[in-house]
Amino acid sequence: MNILYIFLKLWGHIELFWIQHILPIITFFFSLLPKPQKKNELHFISKCNCVFKTCDINHSFSDDYDFRIITNYLDDNKYGKIIFDKNDISNNIELSLKHFTTIQLNIDEEPYDIELCNDYINYYVSDNIIDIHVFEYILNKSLDKYNLTIIDSECNIIDGNEKTRILINKDNYSIL
Q1: How far apart are CA 108 and CA 102, in angstroms?
Q2: How many domains does the chain have?
Q3: In sequence order, which ranges of 33-166 are alpha helices (DSSP H)?
């Protein structure tokens, strides 16, 4: 019984020493290690699917595609720039304000909420055009006909359909 008491008391001292002295040193040294760099990516999107993905932002893809998305990391947040023009090689990202509180597609009386900004990616980037191809990509579903309802940050309600295109600007947006 005496040996068990001594062993438990010794074990308690060792554990206390580990927590108070050794663990902070290990934590400090791990904090000095460089964090892995998140790489920007280029996605080629066709018919609501990513058909090719690369880290070479200037890569040219010869196959037919609907649009490209350049993903950039700024302050550990991922931003997606949508590019429809096949000749556009710019990869600069200018962040935009969050213009919409709700974007909802109604397909055959079934509502689908569209999030342009979530924990994974933020599409509020200047010069992004949001249209049927982008909605298909976000929903991963082919779309023919739908009704669009948008409530912007000033509580304006905008109704649209599959022909409606939204241009996101830095301080505002336009319906094309």
Answers
A1: 19
A2: 2
A3: 132-139
